[in-house]
Amino acid sequence: MSLPIVILASGYGAAASAFLPRVAYRLAVPFGVAPRSACAGCGRPFPAGLRGWVRVGSSCPGRAFHRASPVPTGPLAMVAAGGLAAALLALALGTVAVLPALLPAVPLGVLLAAVDLRCLRLPDPLVGALAAVVVPPLVLLALVGGEPGRLARAAAAAGLAGAAYLMVALLPRQGLGFGDVKLAALLAFPLGFLGWPAVAAGMIAPHLVNGPVAVFLLVTARARRGTALPLGPALLAGALLGVVAA
Length: 246
Hints:
One of its GO terms (cellular component) is plasma membrane. By secondary structure, the chain is mainly α. The protein has two domains: about 1-120, no CATH class; about 125-245, no CATH class. Helices cover about 65% and strands about 0% of the residues. The protein is built from eleven helices and no strands. Helix 6 (about 105-120) packs antiparallel against helix 11, helix 7 packs parallel to helix 9 (about 180-195) and helix 9 runs parallel beside helix 11. The relative contact order is 0.12. Mean pLDDT is about 85; it is low at about 65-70.
């Protein structure tokens, strides 16, 4: 572990996540509803083009959105989450080639968590973007490094995780969405690349994370019994813990 690498990784995670609060605000809408085109609080429309999606320190959009979430999803929370996640990855992986392959996934993971926390959705375009960022670099690493076994293990882990979560999702009253199934399968791929212990830790940890969170929300009156809780953030946190445990 190199302290400069950890600091650089953390800075990257925080800086990249700082551009995402408005993206989260616009995408956190019910299924079938188009992304927000204006601030729900003041009614001011978003600018056209990239400026309408990415802006740091915007005073408009999202204040009511962030207040409505039972847990912090505002700019500071997203920046802190991105910095912490990237730092933990760097601490766990050090200078190995897997680190630069996984670091770009951090801001997308933060974005997915923020959207899921607000509207209980993991939009397919975001999950697809995460897959496009995570899978190709690991495939390239395995092929260039002459380690096809790691690639086969990653694919097997993704298939097993996807099948397991799909079976649970098909059961009645489970509250598990197909977005959770896709995300679980996707996150199992890099965990499988690292090894089966990482897969086991990464698949068990989400359910250990969600329990204390549910208790906290009940105790602080931010949720009631029967309130649906998003699984996406726990899946992402569990995958991070799986990497740390690898």
